[in-house]
Amino acid sequence: MRYSSLRNVCDQSFRIPPPCLTEQNLDDQKGKVFIVTGYVGCGFELAKILYQRNGTIYLAGRNEEKGLKSIKTIQEKIPESKGHIEFLKVDLADLASIKPAVDSFLSKSDTLHCLTNNAGVMNPPNGSKTVQGYELQMGTNCLGPYLFTKLLLPVLERTAASSPSGSVRVTWAGSLATEVMAPEGGIEFDAQGAPKVLGRSADYGQSKVGNVFLAHELAKRAGEDGIVSVEKIFLHPARYGAYTELFAGCSPKVTPDKNGSYIIPWGRFSDPRPDVQENLRNEDGGSAKFWKWCDKETSKWA
Asked: Which residues have CB under 8 Å from 46's CB, separation 6+?
């Protein structure tokens, strides 16, 4: 492991300062609308915090029974909430399911203040693929969230136009795998510009670097429309991972000049390892190449 990666791992794992934004000091979220993908773990904990503070939450995922069970648990734990929470069906491993999910959301809400791309998959059985035949981790962790975000951009832009500067956000799910599992440069591309399939651990690392790239590229493209896009790294226990996501989505410290930032536990600004940073800085580097690949591969379902 390179020294910079070891330093980053230590910074994200040991002697972490207490979270600066929790359910105890989060402002009332009444009137704000959130989509959180994933109804267990960090997604569940984040939705619970937002509901406790009276937000409107669409908890998104593929299994309606499990999603509704999580929602019932949240409502029973916080009966005094004046918020609203409901299930939104989407399968990030099936690109054909994403536009219907967005259409369903838009039939119920004309605003969206924060999209939290939280759900993902790690180390599935060898050879696992999405419905459309992509390596499962790259498809679920990157292609699905990319298309979901792309189709929600118009409502995010409209919301940003009538909201305080920097308050409308898209957050992307990161991981320590960016530091320790991804190959040199973050993603290895084949001659056609597609990410190579390298094996379960490396593929997971590539998908997490892919989220870093997507956060950066969206920040470049949507920043002028008032949208702040950031990458956040979260660790277990899930409650504390949710605090990192809460900081990324709601903290006033995440200002427009922090667009594209890399946020580590439990709400601090940092940087990924140097070779990944190089691909962010280079206009023709891996970050731009990956965005282009995601756009091309999902265009049929947009």
From this structure: 36, 116, 118, 242, 245, 246, 249
Rounded Cα–Cα distance for residues 147 and 171 (Å)? 14
**pLDDT tens string 91-140:** 999 999 999 999 999 999 999 999 999 999 999 999 999 999 999 999 99
CB within 8 A of 155, min separation 6: which ones?
106, 109, 110, 111, 112
169, β-bridge pairs = 114, 228
Q: Output the CA torsion 126→127→132→136 (10° steps).
A: 20
Type of residue found at 225 = D
Percentage, residues of the chain above pLDDT 90: 90
pTM here is 0.96
Please give the Cα distance from 48 to 154 (Å, whole number).
Answer: 27
CB 178 within 8 A of CB 207: no
Neighbours of 255 (CB within 10 A): 13
Burial class (CB in 10 A: 0-12, 13-18, 19+), 111: middle
Bridge partners, residue 115, by sequence: 35, 170
At a CB cut-off of 8 Å and minimum separation 6, what does 161 contact? 225, 226
Give tens-digit pLDDT for 269-297: 999 999 999 999 998 899 999 999 999 99
DSSP string, 121-187: --SPSTT-B-TTSSBHHHIIIIIHHHHHHHHHHHHHHHHHHTS-TT-EEEEEE--THHHHTS-TTS-
Query: Could you read off the pLDDT of 56-77 as tens digits, one per residue?
Result: 999 999 999 999 999 999 999 9
- In this structure, are strands 227-232 and 84-89 parallel, antiparallel, or unpaired? unpaired
At residue 12's C-alpha, the angle toward residues 42 and 59, to 5°, is 15
* Residues 55 and 26: beta-carbon distance below 8 Å: no
